[in-house]
Specification:
With 639 residues, the chain is of the alpha+beta class. The protein contains 18 helices and 24 strands. Strands 6-9-10-24-23-22-19-12 form an 8-stranded mixed β-sheet, sandwiched between helices. The longest helix has 23 residues, at 151-173.
């Protein structure tokens, strides 16, 4: 009985936790008068006439703590500096009404420090956590553990974690199960370089880190699992870009059996729509996802990952320049496989804007872009801002108001201006205007040659024009499926035909499609574009060995090599393989868009730099002699 009573007494009055009774986001006015213990980092120290105020920060939030000369540890508090890790005990007090901080959950209270312990002192900081100062990327990556303490980085990484959790829930709710596939595997031609791993037990042989779980997820379908997904790490030795990690990345990987292309679209769309609506910060999320062929995407947008927030569509206008007085384009069109394309620019009808775009094209390595702009000319009074004087940046409203006034007076006519207009004459320029649906105050830019040589620049120019003229919606996520990809591409230098996309895709038309020109073969391959980025890539798989052998043969891989490199899959497909397909969504890029940042390193915890180096961990590093000897390897010094 006595033991029981003692037990109950200690249950009611537990000792305070060694480091904290609350987080730095927990306390509010209801806690006034309580004795509490907090632990965290010194975010900022302020001395107000002998009273020391500290903003104490942990992962959850911020609490203001203070000490004056009456505090038993005032002398110790005076010594602390930014980013010291401390533990404080103190009394919760209400702030004066005039001093309440409504921006933080703990803004109604402050803690008077009665006791303090330094848990970890900090040296002089190479970068400040407090504030929004910009630091060189090298500094940020070398001291990433400090960089990650900053508020924006904490939010980005929390967002990433929440997005992954949401994806998992949504996939489970859709009837998918998560399975883990191997990390150490065999090399596979998936469009990028492998990271090779030397084998100690098999000297001279190498494993590879998977570029994607491609073969394993297909084998899962052959194994009868029907619906698979995984938050999968992928490893590719690639050149870095702002939207791509040079070493590794994560993707939402999925595969389904007994499906066609549309079934895959219908499975992934609600998952991604839900994620973007949940974490998009109120931005509009398009629910209608158009399906655009690869050929049309290249023609209209100059890229297979178009930004549909920009309404501009490019068009072919070759017929208006063939045999025209503009000799450059006329001669280009005499060559096989060439065409002239127009980039409409609604509202861009000023010489000043046209000159800026010409300069943009020159920066991209072209001699320039031809242009025409249309203006309303008058025999009447010229008002200020008259579009006749093409060196003014008139708004569309100003131009339209001017035109309306002239129309009332019966003094107007449409005139095309610019060097191209003078060379091809009024009939051709008017035909171009009608085709493009342009009017007074608008412009069009022109590029010519073989599309493969200018499409990239045309696509960039389209984006630049949309941004410059305010045509691109910034508060929206616009999605589009890009379909009907060519399976093969030809290297202009070597003439070799190889896979241009996923090598395991089913050709449209099956075996019969492989009997003609390989460059004409389309696959059941698809990408999902959003706001100018590729977010998803996938395909209906080639599950028939005879079609697979033929497809690889056209790319220069003999049956023996295919069996050697993909023996597991080839053997599996002989034993009742179901039709199957799937896709993979890039988690890093999705979070990058949701976080509204243009650099993928802002949403990766410990990224590599542009040279694929980990400055914090000093990787890659030189192997030791013992390691090389054990693996049977020798490093040849590079000149």
């Amino acid at each position: 009985m006595c033991i029981s009573a003692t037990f109950l007494f200690f249950r009611k009055t537990p000792e305070m936790h060694a480091f904290r009774s609350h987080t730095c986001a927990d306390l509010n006015k209801s806690n006034v008068g309580e004795t509490v213990r907090l632990a965290g980092w010194v975010h900022r120290v302020r001395d107000h006439g002998g009273v020391l105020f500290i903003d104490l920060r942990d992962h959850y939030g911020m609490t203001q703590v203070l000490a004056d000369p009456d505090s038993p540890v005032f002398g110790e508090v005076e010594k602390v500096r930014s980013e010291w890790c401390i533990r404080i005990d103190g009394e919760v007090k209400a702030r004066d009404e005039a001093l309440v901080n409504p921006k933080i959950p703990t803004g109604e209270v402050e803690i008077f420090i009665r006791d303090m312990e330094v848990l970890g002192a900090a040296d002089e900081l190479p970068l400040m956590v407090f504030g929004d100062q910009e630091y060189p990327e090298e500094t940020r990556l070398r001291y990433r553990f400090l960089d990650l303490r900053r508020e924006a980085m904490q939010k980005n990484m929390t967002l990433r974690s929440d997005v992954v959790a949401s994806m998992r829930r949504r996939m489970w709710d859709s009837g998918f199960r998560e399975y883990q596939t191997p990390i150490i595997t065999a090399s596979s031609p998936e469009g990028a370089r492998d990271f090779l791993v030397p084998s100690r037990l098999h000297p001279g042989k190498f494993y590879a880190l998977p570029q994607a779980p491609q073969q394993f997820k297909q084998l899962l379908m052959v194994s009868g699992f029907d619906k698979y997904f995984q938050i999968a790490p992928c490893f590719r030795d690639e050149d870095p870009r702002a939207d791509r990690s040079p070493t590794d990345f994560y993707q939402l990987d999925m595969e389904m059996s007994f499906v066609e292309q549309q079934d895959v679209f219908d499975a992934i769309q609600p998952v991604l729509t839900g994620v973007f609506e949940e974490f998009g910060g109120g931005r509009k999320v398009d629910r209608e996802w158009p399906q655009i062929s690869y050929a049309d995407a290249a023609l209209w947008y100059g890229t297979d990952k178009p930004d549909l927030r920009n309404p501009i569509k490019m068009q072919v206008v070759s017929e208006h320049f063939a045999g025209s007085g503009f000799a450059i384009f006329a001669k280009i069109l005499e060559q096989e496989g060439t065409e002239i394309r127009a980039i409409p620019a609604p509202g861009g009808g000023s010489r000043k804007f046209c000159d800026r775009m010409n300069a943009f094209a020159q920066k991209e390595g072209l001699p320039g872009m031809g242009y025409i702009f249309w203006r309303e000319v008058s025999g009447g009074e010229v008002l200020p801002g008259d579009p006749m004087f093409g060196d003014h940046d008139n708004t569309r409203e100003v131009v339209e108001a001017q035109v309306e006034l002239w129309k009332e007076r019966g003094q107007t006519k449409v005139e095309a201006a610019g060097p191209l207009a003078k060379n091809i004459g009024p009939e051709r320029t008017e035909a171009i205007r009608q085709q493009l649906g342009l009017g007074v105050g608008d412009a069009a830019f022109f590029l010519g040659g073989k599309p493969a040589h200018f499409e990239g620049v045309a696509g960039k120019a389209r984006v630049e024009i949309g941004n410059e003229l305010g045509l691109t919606e910034t508060d929206r996520f616009a999605f589009a499926w890009i379909v009907d990809f060519p399976i093969y591409e030809k290297d202009d230098a070597t003439g070799r035909v190889d896979f241009g996309h996923n090598p395991f895709s089913m050709p449209q038309g099956g075996m019969d499609a492989l009997d003609g020109d390989p460059l004409d073969v389309l696959g059941y391959q698809y990408d999902l574009a959003c706001n100018g980025y590729e977010l998803v890539s996938g395909a209906i798989r080639n599950h028939k060995p005879e079609i697979m052998f033929k497809a690889f043969e056209l790319a220069g891989y003999g049956e023996e090599e295919v069996r050697a490199r993909f023996g597991g899959m080839v053997n599996a497909f002989k034993f009742g393989a179901p039709p199957h397909g799937g896709c993979a969504a890039g988690i890093d890029r999705i979070v990058m868009l949701l976080a509204d940042t243009a650099n993928i390193r802002e949403v990766i915890l410990f990224p590599m730099n542009q040279r694929a180096e980990d400055l914090m961990m000093n990787a890659p590093s030189d192997p030791t002699s013992d390691q090389l000897m054990e693996l049977g390897l020798r490093v040849i010094p590079q000149e």
